[in-house]
Amino acid sequence: MPSLRIKDAAGLLGVSDDTVRRWIDSGALPAEKDAAGRKVVDGKVLAEFAVEHATPPPNPLGSGTSARNRFVGLVTKVTTDTVMAEVQMQCGPFTVVSLMSSESVRELGLEPGSVAVAMVKATTVIVETPEGTS
Question: What is the mean pLDDT of the segment spanning 114-134?
Answer without folding.
Answer: 78
